[in-house]
Specification:
Blueprint lengths: L1 E7 L2 E7 L5 E2 L5 H12 L7 H10 L14 H49 L15 E7 L4 E10 L6 E11 L1 H9 L5 E2 L2 E9 L3 E9 L5 E9 L5 E3 L4
Helix pairs in contact: 1-2
C-alpha cells in the first residue's frame, strides 16, 4: 500500500493506492469526484486536484494538465508510471491484434486458393472456351456467413467484330474457417465433381448438403443434395 499527499482545495489530502492498485480518496466520496469530472467534461476547469488525478488514471489516453508541487513529485512519478504501463499495454495489444490479423489473412488466403483450385478441377461446371475470341473464366471467392455459388456469363466479340463468344465468372461465398474445418477436412469439398458449400444435416449413413447444381448454359445455383457415406456419391434432392 502506498500513500501520497496532495494539495487539494487549499487543504492537504491523502491518496491511497491499495495492494490491488486501486485508488482511495479518504477526503472525498466517489460521488463528489465523479460529479466534478462530469462538470469538467462540460467545460469547467475549476475542479479539485484529486478529481483531476482520478480522471487522468481512468482516461490515460486523454492528457490533462495537473500542476504538481515539489512535495507532490512522488505522486506525479506514480501517475507517469501508470500512464507508461498503459501505453505499453496499448502497444502490446496493437501488436497482438495486428499479428492476429496477419495470421487470419494468411489462413484466409490459403483457403481461398484451395477453393479456387477445387473449382478449376471440378467436372460439372462449364467454362467458356471460344476458338475465335479471347474469353475469360474468372473465379471469385468470398468469405461470407451465408454459403452461395453462382455463375454468370456475358457475350464478347473478336477484335474484328465478326465472331462472338462468352466469358464467365463463378462466384463462391462460404465462411472460410467453418468450411475448411467441417467440409474440406472431411473430404467433402468436391463430390462427383460438385462443389459442396455446407453440411445441413448428418445421419449415420448420409449427409444432407448444400452444393452447386449446374443448370442450363453456364448457370449454377445452390441446391440440397444427399451424399451417401458408403460410396461417397451425390444425389440431388427434389427442390421444394
Amino acid at each position: 500500500m502506498e500513500k501520497f499527499e496532495i494539495s487539494c482545495m487549499r487543504k492537504k489530502h491523502t491518496i491511497i493506492v491499495n495492494d490491488k492498485g486501486q485508488l482511495i480518496f479518504p477526503n472525498h466520496t466517489m460521488e463528489e469526484l465523479e460529479a466534478e469530472i462530469a462538470l469538467m467534461q462540460l467545460g469547467t476547469d475549476k475542479i479539485s486536484k484529486c478529481a483531476k488525478v482520478l480522471y487522468q488514471l481512468k482516461n490515460p489516453e486523454k492528457e490533462i494538465k495537473i500542476n504538481f508541487r515539489k512535495e507532490e513529485i512522488p505522486l506525479k512519478e506514480f501517475l507517469d508510471k501508470r500512464l507508461q504501463i498503459h501505453e505499453k499495454r496499448k502497444i502490446k495489444n496493437y501488436k497482438s491484434i495486428n499479428l492476429k490479423t496477419r495470421l487470419n489473412v494468411k489462413i484466409y488466403g490459403k483457403i481461398k486458393k484451395i477453393i479456387e483450385s477445387l473449382i478449376v478441377k471440378q467436372s460439372a461446371y462449364r467454362f467458356a472456351n471460344n476458338r475465335w475470341v479471347d474469353s475469360e473464366n474468372l473465379i471469385t471467392i468470398i468469405n461470407a456467413k451465408t454459403p452461395d455459388i453462382n455463375q454468370k456469363s456475358w457475350r464478347i466479340w473478336s477484335r474484328n467484330g465478326k465472331w462472338s463468344g462468352n466469358s464467365t465468372e463463378i462466384t463462391v461465398s462460404v465462411p472460410f474457417v467453418h468450411w475448411y474445418n467441417h467440409i474440406y477436412k472431411k473430404g467433402l469439398a468436391l463430390v462427383d465433381g460438385i462443389f459442396v458449400l455446407d453440411i445441413i444435416e448428418e445421419t449415420p449413413d448420409h449427409y444432407i448438403v448444400l452444393a452447386g447444381k449446374k443448370g442450363r448454359g453456364f448457370t449454377i445455383t445452390p441446391c440440397k443434395a444427399k451424399i451417401n457415406k458408403t460410396n461417397n456419391s451425390l444425389k440431388w434432392l427434389k427442390q421444394v
